[in-house]
Design a protein that fits this description.
single chain, 447 residues, alpha+beta, five-stranded mixed β-sheet
């Protein structure tokens, strides 16, 4: 048994030596018929076709600030070398030869035109390329590189982009070499935590570079990516909108409360700190200001205006001289035009609240009926009292108040007016911007 195993091992070693010797002869013959600088065609005017396989493995990063797309991809090239062929039977049925490094074989100088480093795919071979007995040459290369991609983050965090990769020969025009697509795939694409690859498409293009240079063939690979917005909605949009709406609650605080100013300042500082924090998450630079950034800027302005409105109301209410708090004209305008819609109930001198004049008449009529002393004319007056008469009676009662009470009514009226205005403005502003963001469109960069 031991002798048999030794004989088998010896036989295999001899076969390996014979194959290695035959392979070396075949390699020498292949290299003898090839040249690194001459296209492998039978005639000089013959067009050489290079088929391209493109597989996208991973989207590593998309830097909106630097306008750079970082990808890991796989490129396969196939072409026929008409100067190399052999009969496998003459070389122990060897049908292919593998080259692990650059030799004197001709390789296409295909490049990605918008690649930042810009060297040919065949410059640094990371895997062997094969030559078959019929002249078919196959080269595969794994690449991780960065590409220029003009971006527009206007719709952040719902932005979508289409980055184009232009792949073609650098030296040979369409009279000598032309590229065509053999396969396009993203089957083994690894997911990215920030970006989602929506689609991957390609098209063939022939671009004219002038009479002296000629036309060049190229493949345009378009990668449609979309940002994953869930993180930004939870950590950017919702807190920003919530802080903005807290400003509205400032006008629920009575005018004589001393916490109104401190509350407004606290909201302003909170939104400012929030803006500083999320500015690190938002893309800086680009072709336009993000819509979300515009919303945050307007919300800061809105908080400042609300703070000024609060200071205005408190300055009127806290003025120790009522006659100097508001001009008679402005006070009359607030009481006659604004108070009927936004004014509070009238306070009595003893601190209790009194309703409108119609409510007073109705109260007296009910008491009179209980005591048997009310007349039919008062009951009819209550029944026929219209909204206009109620307002007129209320205005007359307000004008009978002291100047200090009139100032108090005016302050509460302005406070409620600012409340309604701020809530309406903020709701409309937020709705417009959220709808605008939701209808984000794909921004296609120029090639």
């Amino acid at each position: 048994m031991t002798q048999f195993l030794c004989s088998l091992v010896t036989f295999l070693l001899q076969i390996s030596a014979v194959l290695a010797f035959v392979g070396k002869d075949l390699v020498r013959e292949v290299l003898a018929n090839s040249s690194r600088s001459i296209r492998p065609v039978a005639r000089n005017d013959q067009l050489l076709y290079v088929s391209v396989e493109f597989d996208l493995y991973q989207l590593n990063d998309l830097n909106v600030v630097e306008q750079v797309l970082d990808l890991t991809l796989w490129i396969g090239l196939k072409w026929y070398n008409e100067k190399v062929s052999w009969n496998p039977e003459d070389y122990e049925n060897l049908e292919r030869v593998d080259f692990t490094e650059k030799s004197d074989m001709w390789l296409p100088d295909t490049v990605f035109y918008n690649q930042i480093d810009g060297y040919p795919v065949t410059k640094e071979l990371m895997a062997p390329y094969r030559i078959y007995n019929d002249g078919l040459t196959y080269l595969s290369q794994s690449i991780r590189s960065s590409f220029l991609c003009p971006l527009d983050a206007r719709y952040f965090p719902y932005d979508q982009h289409v980055c184009s990769l232009k792949f073609g020969p650098w030296t040979y025009n369409t009279h000598h070499l032309e590229v065509d697509e053999l396969r396009l795939s993203s089957t083994f694409l690894l997911p990215n935590t920030v970006w989602e690859v929506v689609s991957l498409t390609s098209e063939h293009e022939v671009e004219d570079y002038g009479e002296e240079v000629g036309n060049y063939s190229a493949l345009i690979y378009s990668i449609h990516v979309k940002r994953r917005s869930e993180f930004y909605v939870a950590n950017v949009i919702i807190p920003s909108v919530a802080i903005s709406y807290l400003t509205v609650f400032n006008f629920f605080i009575p005018c004589d409360a001393g916490e109104k100013i401190s509350y407004s300042v606290t909201i302003f500082l909170s939104q400012t700190v929030n803006l500083m924090l999320i500015s690190e998450l938002m893309p800086r630079g680009g072709q336009s200001v993000p819509i979300l950034g515009q919303y945050l800027l307007i919300s800061i302005i809105f908080i400042v205006v609300s703070l000024l409105a609060t200071i205005h109301v408190i300055s009127i209410h806290s003025n120790p001289f009522p006659e100097n708090a508001m001009s008679p004209r402005n006070l009359r305008f607030v009481l006659r035009r604004l108070a009927p819609c936004f004014g509070p109930k009238l306070p009595k001198r003893n601190g209790e609240f009194l309703g409108t004049e119609s409510q007073k008449i109705e109260s007296r009529s009910q008491n009179g009926q209980a005591n048997g002393q009310v007349s039919d004319s008062i009951a009819n007056n209550v029944a026929e009292n219209s909204l206009v008469s109620q307002i007129e009676l209320t205005l007359k009662k307000w004008e009978q108040l002291s100047l200090r009470d009139q100032i108090t009514v005016a302050c509460e009226t302005l406070n409620r007016l600012y409340l309604a205005t701020s809530f309406t403005f903020l709701t409309v502003l937020t709705s417009i911007y959220m709808v605008w963001l939701a209808q984000s469109e794909i921004v296609k960069p120029p090639r």
